[in-house]
């Protein structure tokens, strides 16, 4: 259900009292009353929502936050206890009971690639939130702006790929780009290639 549009409240008209017959001060006072009533309405609805815990009360601030969070392209998943926030994840098996099953990638094993996103939150040892695209903040720090991020050998992210060594058969996958020292735009490439020395 789309949020309803609020209509600015106006002063009730009285017989023989129309806007074009009011003085500029009377018009300004009527607008101030209408603005104050609108703010009061927002506040009251917000408080009712907090007290009742019901989502059917319209609260534009909470609705905006909810829309932002929903636009981050995240999903809940089961992971391993050894998986950590910031790890690049792949889909290990089909969903169980509607919950996706993921674990950390291994760039040396084609069966554990490609990465589909990174863990941004763990609520328990095996319950996590994986983000698949969009802006990720405060998961990594010390990044160089405008540099590409790749899957690292430990399953995390790196901006500096180590030189290929003889016999090295590591897979390389681009995951996004840094837009700040602690923020990146996550856009995992569907393509990954094996590098050789």
In words, what does this structure look like?
- The protein is α+β, with helices and mostly antiparallel strands and 197 residues long.
- 20% of the residues lie in helices and 28% in strands.
- It folds into 2 domains: 19-70; 74-194.
- The chain is elongated, with a radius of gyration of 26 Å.
Summarize the structure.
This protein is an alpha+beta fold. Helices cover 20% and strands 28% of the residues.
Keywords, please?
2 domains; disordered N terminus; 197 residues; alpha+beta; five-stranded mixed β-barrel; five-stranded antiparallel beta sheet
Percent of residues in beta strands: 25-35%
Q: Secondary-structure element order, as H and E?
A: HHEEEEEEEEEEEE
Low-confidence stretches: 3-15
Report strand order across the widest sheet: 1-3-2-4-5
Rg over CA atoms, rounded to whole Å, is 26 Å
> Number of helical segments?
2
What summary fits the major beta sheet?
5 strands, mixed, barrel
Helix content: 10-25%
Report how far apart the termini are.
56 Å
Task: Name the shape in a single word.
Answer: elongated
Tally of structural domains:
2
Number of strands: 12
Secondary structure elements and pairings:
Blueprint (H helix, E strand, L loop, with lengths): L23 H29 L7 H11 L3 E5 L9 E9 L2 E6 L12 E6 L4 E5 L2 E4 L10 E4 L5 E2 L12 E2 L1 E7 L2 E4 L6 E2 L3
Parallel strand pairs: 1-3
Antiparallel strand pairs: 1-5, 2-3, 2-4, 4-5, 6-11, 7-8, 7-10, 9-12, 10-11
């Amino acid at each position: 259900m789309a949020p309803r549009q609020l209509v600015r409240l106006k002063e009730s008209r009285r017989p023989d009292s129309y806007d074009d017959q009011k003085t500029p001060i009377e018009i300004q006072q009527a607008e101030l009353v209408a603005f104050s009533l609108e703010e009061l309405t927002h506040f009251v609805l917000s408080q009712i929502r907090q007290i009742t815990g019901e989502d059917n009360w319209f609260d534009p601030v909470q609705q905006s936050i909810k829309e932002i969070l929903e636009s981050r392209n995240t999903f809940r998943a089961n992971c391993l206890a050894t998986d950590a926030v910031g790890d690049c994840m792949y889909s290990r098996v089909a969903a169980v009971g509607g919950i996706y099953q993921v674990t950390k990638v291994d760039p040396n094993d084609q069966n554990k690639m490609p990465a589909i996103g990174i863990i941004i939150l763990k609520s328990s040892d095996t319950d996590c939130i994986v983000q698949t695209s969009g802006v990720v903040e405060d998961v990594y720090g010390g990044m160089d702006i405008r540099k590409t991020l790749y899957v690292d050998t430990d399953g995390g992210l790196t901006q500096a790929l180590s030189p290929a060594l003889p016999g090295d058969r590591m897979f390389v996958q681009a995951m996004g780009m840094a837009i700040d020292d602690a923020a990146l735009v996550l856009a995992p490439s569907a393509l990954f290639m094996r590098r050789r020395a």
